[in-house]
Amino acid sequence: MKKDKGKIKLYGFNNLTKTLSFNMYDICYTKSEDDKRAYIEYIDEEYNSEKLTKILKEVTKIIGANILNIAIQDYDPKGASVTILICESENNDCRGGMTEHRHPQVGAAAHLDTSHITVHTYPESHPDNGVCTFRADIDVSTCGEISPLAALPFLIASFDTDVMTLDYRVRGFTRDITGNKLFIDHSLTSIQDYIPGEIKEQFQMIDVNVYQENIFHTKCKYTNVDLDEYFFNFSVNDMPAAEVRSILAQIERERDEIFYGRNFAQLEGEE
Description:
The protein is an alpha+beta fold. It contains 6 helices and 12 strands. The protein has one domain (17-270): 4-Layer Sandwich (S-adenosylmethionine decarboxylase). The strands form 2 sheets. Strands 1, 2, 3, 5, 6, 7, 8, 11 and 12 form a 9-stranded antiparallel sheet that branches. A two-stranded antiparallel sheet has the order 9-10.
């Protein structure tokens, strides 16, 4: 994370709330209903509550926070959630210590005295073709001096991602020692400033920012399409070229609709 040149002297506690929302999508193509169910089962196990909890614990470490409580849930038939409550530092009043609760289904949640981190997963599939998608939503909300943007490179590396939607917002205000309100306490022009160059080279990225409201939004689409990485239990060599082209078109359409937030079939019908 970039550091400001000088630290602003504040009056009292820094109560700005900084929230990073990280939404990722993984896309897969299956040739049969059995393979579709197998993919959903695979992805549900690959990103179960135990693994998600490890990811969130590492995020907590990266941003320099401390865990107070973790709630975990694995859902039947699919999906998981984790929530973690965190505090900014050991010197804060982190009442109650850390407890962990487990339930029969998959999910996790962590609670902090000043902040929280949550993750929810959503495996799903198309009813009429072999397209399957997996979505994970992670929210890191902090107050005080912590900024969740420091954990963004780790979050991106933790998932196989076709499309990412990144949102960052700073809410509220704090005061300096003269009483002036500060609505943001760190320099920021784009979420992309916190994404390493080697990652940015792999994605098409679009920014939609509202600077006067301290709202930042970045959409990312993976650009290197290797079809074999999208096929579940079969490969390009298992089918005729015409069928490969048809499947590629379906995958590209799925990626573009998620990236642009539009159903292209509806748009075509409106023309």
